[in-house]
Amino acid sequence: MFVTLLQFRHFFAEHGHLYLFAIFSAIVWAMWALKSLLSRRYRPWTREYHTSTSVIIPVVDEPPGLFRDVLARICQQQPTETIVVINGPRNQVLETICDDFADQGVRWTWTAVAGKRNAVRVGTQMASGQILVLVDSDTVWTRGTLTELVKPFADPKVGGVTTRQRILHPNRHFLLRWADWLENSRAKYSMPAQSALGYVGCLPGRTIAFRKHIVEKAMPHFMHGRFLGVFLEVSDDRTLTNETLKQGYKSVYQSTSLVYTDAPTKWKKLYKQQLRWARGSQYNTLRMLPFMLRHTPVLALFYLVDIILPFLLIGAIIGGVRRALDGSGVNYYMGFIEKYGMGLGAVWVIVLSLLATGLSMSIRHLRHLEEVPSDIIRMPIFVLIATFFLMPIRMIGFFRMGHVAGWGTRADAYAGGGDDDLMKELEQLPPTAPTDIIDRHVESGDTVDLHQAGAQFTGQPGGSPARPAGQPGAVATLERPEVAALAPAVGAPAVDDPSRTQAHAPTRTHSWRNPNPWAGIPYFIGFAILIAEIIYRG
Asked: 360-369 long-range contacts, Cβ below 8 Å, gap at least 24?
């Protein structure tokens, strides 16, 4: 912040060069101001609304304790039905857990075709509810999640709704605390700002609800749509959000519907996750750009800024290094040195830099700091990670939009079981509007037994006694003709015929032997921007 002020003083007062870092900082502040103003207009929906709901949970593999906890808490909120779609390899442990919840409305099916999108397709075909609620298999609901989530659908113009999302038990690891800060900052600024306009650009998919007919209409493009010559399996939530907006519906955020999820605790896994998100986000931004420019120009501005900021930052760094090497540019600190001398002048520069940086960070993250005051100490490191870790990843993701890569995985993930201190706290929240539980000071290594907490909430065990495999109702019961072909018989797991569904699986044919010529477009655009910045001498 201090450097930015000095650069602007040099530009305006001395008619000097306008450096890229000053432009970068100005855009960051302008976006923060715009989001702050727009978010003040946001109000969550409060009127009760009742409709049929089908919860769809795609799952490949999940710690049994966590998956049981997830199902228990969903069942406690009594959706019309819960459909678990196990995809890829057979997982008898998860099948048995689903059987335990059969008398609470849980049906499960298995498809040999791996992939979340195909699992969503299968679940949609099985669903009977007017509202589809897509849930990640490691997402934990709090009290009132479903009731609050469906309230915006009272407005017939609303087509998609997402929840407020926080990281489960963030004191386990510093990276979890950082991820929780990132999620809460989005929930405080970006999400309400976009929702106030009626179009959240990406409804995060940990728990996300759509009108069923929207998803059905979007399914062909959801399963086959290509851009830059490739189909990306990732960013399924952004794709469904795009389709919702293109069908003329609003996509909104319901802050009173709160869920908790996990996050990576290893740098390598975090890199894979963030790269996957960056690639999918920018891929969808470019293919959605013509529509956004015509119908949602402010949303287009938000997403275009997300693309350009990493390039501005890299350009500013390159320019700074270049000026240091060739001796060009202006020494902004010379005035302090000349007035106070080398020793005291250097002290003034350091003190003012720290004060300006601290003030800048505190202002732009004030809403989060009001909830988690202790993060003021961590904030400098948080910002460094966001700047020098996330920004380069976003630029790499831009270059690799025309390439297909696998999903990231998590190590040291929360696996359920243990103490239930956290969920006891969560269940004490007022039923009208779940409030964040922050700064919980749980000792590292402690775990949380959400299953026991769920039993405490209902007064009953979280799951029913296990049923024998094959018993009617214990597994997916497919009564509707259009989905009968997915299972050999009622009461048996539904197995997709790979010969019939292979077309729905993402095509991964591009390699060094069969290159995708369209993949070069992002490289051309990206390097053109960098070359322009170097010529500009930022």
From this structure: 360/1, 364/28, 364/29, 364/32, 365/181, 365/185, 367/185, 367/188, 367/189, 368/181, 368/184, 368/185, 368/188
Residue with tokens 């298995």: 110
Cα separation of 432 and 442, whole Å?
Answer: 26
CB of 391 closer than 8 Å to CB of 423 = no
- At residue 525, what is the residue type? I
**Residue indicated by tokens 């399924």:** 236
432 forms beta bridges with none
Structure tokens at 488: 């050999």
**pLDDT one-digit tens code per residue, 466-519:** 333 333 333 333 333 333 333 332 233 344 433 333 334 444 444 455 678 899
Tokens of residue 83, six digits = 């459909």
- Rounded-to-integer distance, Cα 435 and Cα 367, Å: 14
State the chain's mean pLDDT as an integer. 81
Instruction: List beta partners, residue 223.
Output: none
d(CA 481, CA 490): 12
pLDDT band at 406 (very low <50, low <70, confident <90, very high): low
Residues facing 164 on adjacent strands: 258
Q: Residue 189 phi/psi, 5° resolution?
A: -125, -70
Q: Give every CB contact of residue 308 below 8 A, 6+ residues apart in sequence.
A: 27, 529
150-165 confidence digits (pLDDT tens)? 999 999 999 999 999 9
> What DSSP line would sit under 450-465, residue for residue?
HHHHHHHHHTS-SSPP
Mean pLDDT to the nearest integer, 54-73: 95
**Range 191-212 average pLDDT:** 97
pTM beyond 0.85: the answer is no
Q: Which residue matches tokens 């800024």?
A: 305
Distance, C-alpha 246 to centroid of its chain: 21
φ/ψ of 507, rounded to 5, equals -90, 120
- Tell me the Cα Rg of the chain: 25
Mean pLDDT on 14-35: 91
Supply the DSSP symbol for 155.
S
CA separation for the pair 478, 236 (Å, rounded): 25
Q: Which residues have a Cβ under 8 Å from the Cβ of 186 and sit 6 or more positions away? A: none
Which tokens go with 297?
């120009």
With CA atoms as reference, report the closest residue to 538 among 9, 11, 2, 5.
11
Distance CA 439, CA 448 (A): 16
Q: How far apart are CA 503 and CA 514, in angstroms?
A: 19
Residues shown for the chain? 538
Token duo for residue 420: 């239930």
Instruction: Look up residue 471 and give its two tokens.
Output: 């018993």
How many Å apart are CA 225 and CA 243, to the nearest integer?
Answer: 11
Q: What percent of the chain has pLDDT over 90?
A: 59
pLDDT class for 333, splitting at 50, 70, 90?
low
Q: What region, left, alpha or beta, does residue 61 occupy, with left being phi > 0 and alpha being psi -120 to 50 degrees? A: beta
